[in-house]
Design a protein that fits this description.
This protein has about 290 residues and is of the alpha/beta class. The chain has a single domain (about 45-285), classed as Rossmann fold (3-Layer(aba) Sandwich), CATH 3.40.50.720. It is about 40% helix and about 10% strand. It has helices spanning about 55-70, 80-95, 110-120, 145-165, 195-215, 230-235, 240-245, 255-270, 270-275; strands spanning about 50, 70-75, 100, 125-130, 175-180, 220-225, 280-285. The protein has a seven-stranded parallel beta sheet, sandwiched between helices. Helix 4 links the parallel strand 4 (about 125-130) and strand 5. The radius of gyration is 18 Å and the shape is globular. The relative contact order is 0.17.
Amino acid sequence: MSATLEPKFMKPPPPQKQELPGSQKEMTPKPLEEGPDYRPSGKLEGKAAIITGGDSGIGRSIAILFAKEGADVCIIYLNEHKDADHTLARVRELGRRGVKVAGDIGDPGFCKRAVQEALHAFGRVDILVNNAAEQKEISGIEDLKAEQVERTFRTNIFGFFYLTDAVLPHLKKGATIINTTSIQAYRPEPYLMDYACTKAAILNFTRSLAKELAARNVRVNAVAPGPIWTPLIPASFSAEHVAKFGKNTLLKRPGQPAEVAPAYVFLASNADSSFITGQVIHINGGSEMSS
């Protein structure tokens, strides 16, 4: 895919800064949502998916590719309504049903309501993508406030537990769960200490859950992206940090959401990955991972 990327995607972005949680429409350049070489083949025909953080970034690209492959999509997001509307419009343009549910996945009651809305819309859930996350740059552990630690864990890992628990009674044999972890789970940076800890927790959550659900024929895997150009980046880091984002990869640039989303299609497709569970796909521009 890299050979067909436009020049603006082949280098680190210019300096810029946003407020959390960030907006995709305000980014320069805007992330690449759909790869120019992607060719759908109906791999998810007739299925229904829930995607957290589906309003923008990696989540939006996953939603678009799932729709291209024939799936109906429920996107869960916090409060970025315009971004969510954009994603939903594209899903519907592709001929699939789409619904959006706004709220905090750190609230178990909200997770139960969100699953019920998806069931009401589609009558089924076949794929759960736990993707939503938040991060905030810190100068060191002394800069890490208790409120931030709690908030990061509540969104980044507690929400995975709550939503999985809410959806599990409705998953049939052949269903799949895909969790978004990160390169930070393997190569943690001190300026993202709390975020990195949650991503390591997601790694073990994935492996433990895969063992538990194997008897039900429900597969559980993860994708570990990084660094990827999403709204979380200009909203989390200083403008100076953003200007260097992705330069340390072998490809000397950040990845695009469109370069990550196909891995989720692969893991969601029983035609492609029926013998894969408890595994992690690394999409990071060339960093070597031990597992």
